[in-house]
């Protein structure tokens, strides 16, 4: 029985994880559930899964959750980040699903890595911001790091060995990272000035949280995933090629020196990579529709348009600068928040990232405090740029 802690339980990945867990009560148990502030959603999950503990980041939300659950279920309620970090290292937890959105998920994910947990990583921003530190924690803590991001999970499935033992990795010639292209594929940058948050969040294939949906529309997500793949599989950016594949049926491919190209295919449903990361090296059913190739009929491919989507170009530049992707990701988080609350335009997102990268002093952060300081500096720079933009 794997006792699972779900960080970000009320989100898109959290709910899909709990759906898979609920299908296999003989194998997995939801032991600790954590979220930010969504009390009603968390109360429903606690009544359904009866975890030992529930943690709300927001103290008011924790109080309200306690009132709602009182006398109905034995779940103990906690507040703040500290209990998340503690439970991520607890001997009562075997597996940690890191599915908090953004930099906010770093401390708990890092704690799980250091404590040597089976760590299912959806929270790519944590790895992108703290790459070297994160991978060192995984190695030294003896954690088993399993990628949940669909592309990286596909790469993991097509690579010769698990991430820890990779004698044949030298025979990998290229990693082909697929991108759907998002809702604005085929559009020019000029046509994107007035797109709304709802238009940006209307992803053609995937149903996801709003932050990652905007990231997919701007191709920031592919930039983050490029960095994520470099860290996970110990590759240089030049060894990874982004290929736009609008149907999101192939989730990524590995090209070997002998010309073989291995791909993982499946429905665009996160329960497949989640189930694989929960069950690896075994497999379990995930409730996902079968892939009917005849119905799918077409698989198309094209190159990404870096003029229409300059965020991906910025990521290619930032990835070569130590600390660059930490600042990139922080600036993007600030910009996406501002775009979602209609303070800036969609096309101001790349401007914010570029301005931040230009004015923050970049260096590879080697401690958590340094990562947090760089993240903070980038947020301040992005915030200052945005207040100028909002007055335009
Ligand atoms: P979401 O917005 O749907 O959910 C985010 C979750 O994080 C919520 O449960 C929220 O309560 C929680 N949260 C936010 N701040 C918190 C804090 N300070 N403390 C505790 N909990 C907090 O997001 P999502 O789409 O599920 O994405 C989660 C992560 O997974 C992101 O990093 C995203 O990039 C990654 N990811 C998502 C998908 C997807 O299909 N949704 C695919 C690949 C990767
Ligand atoms: Mg992805």
How would you classify the helix and strand content by structural class?
alpha/beta
What bound compounds does this protein have?
A: nicotinamide-adenine-dinucleotide, magnesium ion
Low-confidence stretches: none
Can you tell me the overall shape? globular
Pfam families: DXP_redisom_C, DXP_reductoisom, DXPR_C
Catalytic activity: 2-C-methyl-D-erythritol 4-phosphate + NADP(+) = 1-deoxy-D-xylulose 5-phosphate + NADPH + H(+)
Protein name: 1-deoxy-D-xylulose 5-phosphate reductoisomerase
Enzyme class: oxidoreductase
Please outline the helices and strands.
Layout: E1 2-7, H1 12-23, E2 28-35, H2 39-49, E3 53-56, H3 59-69, E4 76-79, H4 81-88, E5 95-98, H5 106-114, E6 118-121, H6 124-141, E7 144-147, H7 150-158, E8 172-179, H8 197-201, H9 210-218, H10 220-233, E9 240-244, E10 250-256, E11 261-265, H11 271-279, H12 293-296, H13 310-318, H14 324-340, H15 348-359, H16 368-391
Parallel strand pairs: 1-2, 1-5, 2-3, 3-4, 5-6, 6-7, 8-9
Antiparallel strand pairs: 8-10, 10-11
Helix pairs in contact: 2-3, 4-5, 5-6, 6-10, 6-14, 9-14, 10-13, 13-15, 14-15, 14-16, 15-16
Bound molecules: nicotinamide-adenine-dinucleotide and magnesium ion.
């Amino acid at each position: 029985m794997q006792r699972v802690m779900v960080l970000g339980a009320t989100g898109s990945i959290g709910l899909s994880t709990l759906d898979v867990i609920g299908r296999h009560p003989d194998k997995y148990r939801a032991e600790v559930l954590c979220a930010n502030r969504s009390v009603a959603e968390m109360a429903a999950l606690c009544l359904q899964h009866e975890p030992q503990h529930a943690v709300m980041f927001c103290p008011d939300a924790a109080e309200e959750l306690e009132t709602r659950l009182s006398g109905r279920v034995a779940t103990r309620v906690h507040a703040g980040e500290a209990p998340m970090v503690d439970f991520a290292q607890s001997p009562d937890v075997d597996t940690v699903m890191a599915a908090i959105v953004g930099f906010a998920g770093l401390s708990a994910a890092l704690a799980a890595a250091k404590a040597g947990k089976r760590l299912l990583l959806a929270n790519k921003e944590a790895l992108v911001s703290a790459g070297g530190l994160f991978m060192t924690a995984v190695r030294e803590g003896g954690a088993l790091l399993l990628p949940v991001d669909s592309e990286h999970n596909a790469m993991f499935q097509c690579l010769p060995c698990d991430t820890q033992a990779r004698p044949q990795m030298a025979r990998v010639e290229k990693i082909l990272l697929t991108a759907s292209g998002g809702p604005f594929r085929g559009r020019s940058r000029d046509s994107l000035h007035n797109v709304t948050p709802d238009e940006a969040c209307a992803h053609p294939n995937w149903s996801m949280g709003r932050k990652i949906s905007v990231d997919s529309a701007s191709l920031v997500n592919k930039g983050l995933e490029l960095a994520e793949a470099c860290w996970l599989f110990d590759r240089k950016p030049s060894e990874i090629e982004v290929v736009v594949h609008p149907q999101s049926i192939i989730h990524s491919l590995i090209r070997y020196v002998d010309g073989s190209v291995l791909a993982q295919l499946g429905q665009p449903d996160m329960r497949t990579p989640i189930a694989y990361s929960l069950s690896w090296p075994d497999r379990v059913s995930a409730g996902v529709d079968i892939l009917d190739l005849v119905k799918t009929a077409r698989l198309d491919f094209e190159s990404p348009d870096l003029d229409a989507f300059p965020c991906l170009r910025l990521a290619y530049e930032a990835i070569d600068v130590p600390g660059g992707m930490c600042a990139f990701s922080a600036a993007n988080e600030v910009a996406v928040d501002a775009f979602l609350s209609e303070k800036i335009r969609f096309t101001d997102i790349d401007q914010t990232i570029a301005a931040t990268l230009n004015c923050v002093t970049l260096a590879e952060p080697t401690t958590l405090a340094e990562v947090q300081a760089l993240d903070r500096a980038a947020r301040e720079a992005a915030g200052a740029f945005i207040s100028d933009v909002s007055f335009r």
